[in-house]
Amino acid sequence: MLAWFTTIRLAIIGSIAALAVGFYAGQRWEKADRYDDAQKQIAALDAAFKKSVENVSTAWKDEAEKARIKVEEWSLQNQVDEGLIRQLLAGQVVIRREFDDLGEQIKITSDVGTCVFTADAVKLLRAASDAANRSAEAGDTN
Predict the structure, then answer these.
(1) Domain limits, the chain
(2) Of 31-45, 55-69, 93-107, 115-129, where does the model show the most confidence?
(3) What Rg value do the Cα atoms of the chain yield, rounded?
(4) Three-state DSSP class for 121?
(5) Long-range contacts: 135-139, Cβ < 8 Å, 24+?
(6) Which of 61, 77, 83, 93 has its CA 20 to 30 A from that of 119?
(7) What is the spatial distance between Cα 49 and Cα 46, in angstroms, rounded to a whole number?
(8) Which long-range contacts (CB under 8 A, 24 or more apart) does 71-80 make?
């Protein structure tokens, strides 16, 4: 009976040992499974982060390109406007000369008496000539 009891004891110890080894192996397997899941989640988060950085970088590059194009458009418009302003100033110089010449003619003709202008016409021409001269002088100070 002692042999039988020893056999049962060994069987019980073997069962407990097998149960302990199985429990330990199960825990290791579960931890390994959780580790694999965690690795997959970390890889997914890393990929999402890289994609987000790439999207932000692309968006910034697009906005920078739009701003560069806008600045170039403004520069081109500035050059066009500057050319038009120069043409206007040149036109004002021509108009001022013509008014000056007209003023001289008015002075000559009114002094000689070959042509009669009304006093209002003479005032109007002289005022226009003076205004043209003042605007030209103001433009020359730049």
Answers:
(1) 37-140
(2) 55-69
(3) 50
(4) helix
(5) 135/92, 136/92, 136/93, 136/96, 139/89, 139/92
(6) 93
(7) 5
(8) none
